[in-house]
């Protein structure tokens, strides 16, 4: 890509500080991870509310036989961009794909592209990551930890950097129960972990993984923690924000209610319940879930870039991007979802949606065999196994930096273009839209289908018969047991 004058329009200083739109006007942005759930949403928001942005560079890797250009076209063909494309078609000319891969030396950038980024980019959003919990340690370290180190190296070279935002996770220190907005160290130095993983000795890597998993629930959260530490020790010269979202759910309002595009986390569980596949989960019954709709995460991330530039510390500022909505337990959320999935059923459900939550491992194991393992012989075993995770933890997240930022944003001229406060969250409405979103964006179904409603009512009767049969069978077993023993 040729050198370009992205800073052509001028914006006065007060505009930069008085509004979010003014802050982004004339700035050039680099986004990694733009083809993912959060990255796509950030791109959509930026082009919708910041029309004077100078340029947006998207670091995208070729994948599965698709070239950079094909992937870029596919990204912009996503219907979530339709409305902004209609309103402001010229904005598309400001978006530029750049071939890169965070797992490769020098981010896999061509020397020419690197120079172009170094000359032009002002704000960086680094989101690219492997979010698979069980990724082999060396792969997760290379993408999430070393990949972040490579991005920070580039950021340090930028000639006109004004802020860098790293999207981490609220669970980067999941072994703690109370999590402050600060960077925690590990007993293993990030450089030592990288050295072992790059050494390629399988025995050493396995031993390391075994040690790591004694403290961390998975390789994902551990490698995100290491990335935070790398940023902390390598970013003296840069204003850096580390945004830590908890569980990111479908959008509440923007770009439309219920928007989503991956099936991880809550979405995966909802999908399995709605399809009638997941029937039992093991969890502490009153455990609260920290779910944040993706549009809040986007707004907090966009505002963090502004906030950290204006209120610069000599160390990265951490923002626990967690919920301050009325608390909701797993059981409440699950129950709301079950009701929605019965009211607006998915097509081709396998059975009537219900799902028990049990805290006792023994009861869970028995139910799991009857409800999941046996039917799994005729169903997709993969979906079943995912339901085995036990949810028992709850965390207290400090939110001082988020709160301070929220207060400062309220004083801006265009504070209404972002939502940072979830206190008026209506969970029932949110879950209803979530179900619509799963049907529309994941399953590509019509929201109302007579066929699925008819099938659902048949399944309801099958469900009732099974319940009655279950009660009779259980009573008979107990009676036999009492009679003979
Ligand atoms: N979703 C959540 O609940 C959640 C919660 C907390 C934090 N986060 C954080 O939010 C960020 C975005 O997550 P997400 O939910 O949007 O995940 P996602 O949908 O899986 O997207 C991941 C993005 O990273 C890119 N990527 C992966 N490996 C790459 C590589 N080697 N080089 C370049 N790009 C690469 C992917 O590109 P391809 O399309 O090429 O694969 C994709 O664009 C991550 O940093 C994650 O840790 C997510």
Automatic annotation (TrEMBL):
Catalytic reactions on record: a long-chain fatty acyl-CoA + 2 NADPH + 2 H(+) = a long-chain primary fatty alcohol + 2 NADP(+) + CoA
Gene Ontology MF terms in the entry: alcohol-forming long-chain fatty acyl-CoA reductase activity; alcohol-forming very long-chain fatty acyl-CoA reductase activity
Pfam families in the record: NAD_binding_4, Sterile
InterPro entries in UniProt: FAR (IPR026055), FAR_C (IPR033640), FAR_NAD-bd (IPR013120), NAD(P)-bd_dom_sf (IPR036291)
GO BP, sorted A to Z: long-chain fatty-acyl-CoA metabolic process
Principal localisation: membrane
Keywords: Lipid biosynthesis, Lipid metabolism, Membrane, NADP, Oxidoreductase, Transmembrane, Transmembrane helix
TM ranges: 362-385, 458-482
Superkingdom, taxonomy of origin: Eukaryota
Localisation: Membrane
Residues annotated as signal peptide: none
Topology class, membrane: Multi-pass membrane protein
Domain Thioester reductase (TE) residues, every copy: 31-300
Annotated Gene Ontology cellular component terms: membrane; peroxisome
Entry's EC annotation: 1.2.1.84
Domain Fatty acyl-CoA reductase C-terminal: 392-445
Family: Belongs to the fatty acyl-CoA reductase family.
Function description: Catalyzes the reduction of fatty acyl-CoA to fatty alcohols.
Annotated protein name in UniProt: Fatty acyl-CoA reductase
Protein's organism: Tetragonisca angustula
């Amino acid at each position: 890509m040729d050198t370009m004058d992205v800073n052509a329009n001028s914006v006065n200083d007060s505009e930069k500080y008085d509004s979010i739109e003014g802050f982004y006007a004339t700035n050039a942005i680099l986004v990694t991870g733009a083809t993912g759930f959060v990255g796509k949403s950030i791109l959509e928001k930026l082009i919708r509310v910041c029309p004077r942005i100078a340029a947006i560079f998207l670091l995208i890797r070729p994948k599965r036989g698709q070239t950079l250009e094909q992937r870029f076209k596919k990204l912009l063909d996503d219907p979530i961009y339709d409305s902004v494309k209609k309103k402001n078609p010229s904005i598309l000319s400001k978006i530029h794909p750049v071939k890169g891969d965070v797992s490769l030396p020098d981010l896999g950038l061509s020397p020419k592209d690197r120079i172009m980024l170094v000359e032009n980019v002002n704000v960086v959003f680094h989101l690219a990551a492997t979010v698979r919990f069980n990724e082999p340690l060396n792969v997760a370290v290379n993408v999430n930890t070393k990949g972040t180190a490579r991005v920070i190296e580039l950021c340090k070279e930028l000639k006109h950097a004004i802020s860098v935002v790293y999207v981490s996770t609220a669970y980067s220190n999941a072994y703690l129960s109370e999590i402050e907005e600060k960077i925690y160290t590990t007993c293993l130095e990030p450089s030592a972990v990288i050295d072992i993983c790059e050494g390629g000795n399988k025995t050493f890597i396995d031993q390391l993984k075994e040690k790591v998993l004694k403290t961390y629930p998975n390789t994902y959260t551990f490698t995100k923690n290491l990335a935070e530490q790398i940023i902390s020790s390598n970013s003296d010269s840069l204003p850096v924000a580390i945004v830590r979202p908890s569980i990111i759910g479908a959008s509440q309002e923007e770009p439309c209610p219920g928007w989503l595009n991956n099936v991880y986390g809550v979405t995966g569980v909802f999908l399995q319940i709605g399809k009638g596949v997941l029937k039992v989960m093991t969890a502490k019954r009153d455990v609260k879930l920290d779910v944040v709709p993706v549009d809040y995460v986007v707004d907090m991330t966009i505002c963090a870039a502004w906030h950290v530039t204006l209120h610069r510390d000599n160390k990265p500022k951490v923002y626990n991007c967690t919920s301050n909505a009325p608390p909701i337990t797993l059981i409440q959320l699950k129950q709301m979802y079950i009701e929605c999935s019965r009211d607006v059923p998915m097509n081709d459900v396998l059975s009537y949606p219900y799902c028990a939550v049990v805290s006792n491992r023994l009861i869970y194991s028995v139910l799991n065999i009857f409800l999941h393992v046996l039917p799994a012989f005729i169903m997709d075993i993969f979906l079943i196994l995912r339901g085995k995770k036990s949810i028992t933890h709850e965390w207290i997240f400090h939110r001082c930096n988020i709160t301070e930022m929220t207060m400062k944003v309220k004083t801006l001229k265009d504070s209404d273009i972002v939502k940072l406060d979830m206190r008026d969250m209506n969970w029932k409405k949110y879950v209803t839209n979530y179900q619509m979103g799963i049907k529309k964006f994941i399953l590509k179904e019509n929201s109302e289908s007579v066929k699925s409603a008819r099938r659902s009512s048949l399944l309801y009767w099958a469900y009732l018969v099974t319940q009655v049969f279950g009660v009779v069978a259980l009573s008979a077993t107990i009676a036999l047991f009492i009679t003979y023993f």
